[in-house]
What we know:
By secondary structure, the chain is an alpha+beta fold.
Amino acid sequence: xxxxxIGIITTLLVFSVISIAGCTTTYLYMTNxxxxxxxxxxxxxxxxxxxxxxxxxxxxxxxxxxxxxxGQVKTCTKSFYTRNNGHAEVITNTSYSDxxxxxxx
Length: 105
């Protein structure tokens, strides 16, 4: 195989691994909050931008932040689903979209 093709393949492979690693760290950042209380999350992130009641016991807390990627402004959305167990509001699930790499807590 020609050297330039090997260089291109190597570059693509490295970029793919970095992209997968970034998605994994963001996924771990979010899922590491599951089982924590919403008070712990608020202590770390501050007040949510939006809180929505899903039913009597469940809510979703959402934070929005902007970041720039190659000059393009993007909005990161982080949502944390909670359930009140009678003692505390506990994070049961998470979702995110269009976020930069986030490092697990």
